[in-house]
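Researcher: Let's do a round of design. I'm pasting the structure tokens now; please hold your answer until I've finished.
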């Protein structure tokens, strides 16, 4: 639902800036800045759409038992600093089940970095998810120490 609302707000903003630009009939610095903002928004939206699609395909692949293929999709989103929790959660779970604790730790550290440095500070669930990642990281590190002993 939040995703749909995000898309609608974006489309309204794009429409507003384009109408405003054509109503004036001339290009001002402000109009050029707005157009640049709209282009940047559209570019980021395309990237985000691809990331959401990868998450959806990853889930479908997991259901079919194609875990290695799902991992590839999730890892691609992680490498692009995806701002949602899904690929980090799924990879942490998969790596724990496979007893690949070092990989789980790597993914959780990346999730923590993303939620501290990339995710917008005002996002309502940011701190809750950040706390969840940190707790899971502590558990994974404890398991890893136990395996090393």
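Researcher: That's everything. Go ahead.
Model: Designed sequence:
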């Amino acid at each position: 639902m939040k995703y749909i609302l995000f898309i609608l707000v974006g489309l309204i903003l794009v429409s507003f800036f384009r109408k405003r630009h054509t109503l004036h009939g001339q290009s001002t610095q402000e109009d050029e800045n707005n157009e640049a903002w709209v282009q940047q928004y559209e570019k980021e939206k395309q990237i985000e759409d691809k990331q959401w699609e990868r998450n959806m395909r990853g889930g479908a692949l997991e259901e079919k038992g194609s875990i290695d293929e799902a991992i590839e999709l999730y890892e691609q989103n992680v490498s692009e600093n995806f701002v949602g929790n899904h690929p980090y959660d799924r990879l942490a779970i998969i790596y724990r089940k496979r007893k690949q604790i070092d990989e789980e730790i790597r993914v959780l550290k990346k999730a923590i970095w993303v939620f501290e440095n990339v995710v917008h500070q005002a996002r309502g669930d940011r701190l809750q998810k950040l706390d969840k990642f940190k707790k899971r990281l502590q558990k994974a590190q404890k398991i890893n120490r136990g395996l090393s002993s």
